[in-house]
Amino acid sequence: MEAQRTRDGVKLMADGDKAASKGMFRKPDWDIAGGCYEKAGVAFKTGKAYDQAIQAYFKASDAMFKADA
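^ thats the sequence. predicted structure below, dont judge the formating
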């Protein structure tokens, strides 16, 4: 169960990174990225991967700051 939650967290972090990246024709969507990072933090915390949860929450707070939330 814990390993599954950690895998879910890794997938959510990748989704957040994808939303936070900018391409040639699009700007970063910080609202979506922040939500993904926050969900990843919860998944890591549930999976007892606390160091990864800290990183996810740090990225979530940075994305929310950039989105002016």
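The chain has a mean pLDDT of 93.
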